[in-house]
Amino acid sequence: MDDPQPSPPESRWQRWLDSHAERFFLYAQQLTRSESDAKDVLQDALTESWSKSGGEIPNRGLVLATIRRRAIDLGRSIDRRSRREQSFAAYTSPMFVADYAAGDTGDHLATAIQRLPDHLREVLILRIWEDMSFPAIGKLAGIPQPTATSRYRYALERLRECLTELKP
Amino acid sequence: MNDQRLEEEIRRLRPAPLPTDLKARLAREPELHGRKPRRHMWLAAAAALVVLAAGIAAPSFFRDTDTSPAVATSPVSVIQRESTLLGTRTVDQRELDGQVWELIEEQWQDDTIAACSATPVRVCSSVIRPAYVWVAAEYQ
Prior knowledge:
- The complex is a heterodimer.
- Chain A is mainly α.
- Helix content of chain A is 73%, strand content 1%.
- The longest helix of chain A has 22 residues, at 11-32.
- Chain A is globular and about 50 Å long.
- Chain B is an alpha+beta fold.
- The A-B interface holds A 1, 3-4, 6-7, 9-10, 13-14, 17, 21-23, 25-26, 35, 39, 42-43, 46-47, 50-55, 93-99, 101-102, 105-106, 109-110, 113, 124, 128-129, 156, 159-160, 163 and B 1, 3, 6-7, 9-19, 21-22, 25-35, 81, 83, 85, 88, 104, 106, 108, 131, 133.
């Protein structure tokens, strides 16, 4: 029997990445606060999710949960103090691309979101870019739904204050 | 600025694109762990044994009754043979004259259906085998 020729790479995997990977990476960045950690976490989580689903498109909620679990595992494996010291010194990569039509507001907003406390930013990211409901966010983040709702409100309030300060 | 207007402004921000090195790391589809083959390995081995046993036993069974000149023909004929690529993974990387080459391990599943003319047996065999190929890596 002739050796079978390798088939071309599955385009479904690439299509899935093209449509979701940027938002997944945003969430991984949010959880790790380090670009290199976010890359590792995302690669591991996507590979795990894809393999477990047997090559089918994995459920988005499960992928996000896998990213979260792996980020927590990674965080536990790194000394907390060194991690905290490194995070603000090393994390300089932009998490967003501003719409130039929005003028300076987009840049201000992007900066303000990156400066939000982690627990507020996580809810904001899941709500805005993953389009998740508050019950779903609460389930993923392990918090009650009212807490998720109020964190989102606090996040909006903080952003509004930042914009007011920057654009008097 | 009210909440709705603020949300609209926020939604205009787009997540930053994937870093190119991460894109390269994710370029190849992961190998699959969740598929069926491994749990049926014992079945495949048993089926292969049946084929082998039938192949050995059949000529001796006919030896006493067949008066025609002996013609060595196998009682086992392959009806269908199919190979499926289950997954791939990179196992090594080398650089040669500026070109990066990756050694890819491919997992192939060979499914064979065979029939035995000596006994009314139809056997299915499924074997997983690795294959290794060097591929020029293409990074964006």
